[in-house]
Sequence to fold (139 residues):
Amino acid sequence: MITAYVSFNGNTEEAFEFYKSALNGEITSIQRFADAPNGAQLSESDKNKIMHIALEAPDNIRLMGNDHMDFMGGPYQAGNNFSLSFHPDSEELADQLFNSLSVGGTISVPMSKAPWGDYFGMFKDKFGVKWMINHQLKH
Fold:
């Protein structure tokens, strides 16, 4: 399954409340940057920003997102604020997808255990498309 992952310029929560209503969906997960391992070092306004949010709606609609932070790849730029996100069912497949798709590209987050407990990596491929690979570990 490929999921759209959209970054917003500080208004993710507002956007997802709109999508929740418009798509008759439900927010199934929300984490703030304050919850990250280094969250205490952030400014008060950045602590409250969304690190990850997920919405599920009827007809297999799944949307995920976050508030953009400059350390995630430079300044926010509308039109370049989305990634394609794969959710493979094994670490081996996650590594295979990551290693094949990132050839010639730029890796921003190598595959590793993420703060939310999954096996995760992020990169921009040689064509400029941003990808996320996220294997949900058994919690």
Q: What stands out?
A: The first strand starts at residue 2 and ends at 8. Residues 80 and 130 are 9 Å apart (CA to CA). The domain at 2-135 is CATH 3.10.180.10 (2,3-Dihydroxybiphenyl 1,2-Dioxygenase; domain 1). The first helix runs from residue 12 to 22.
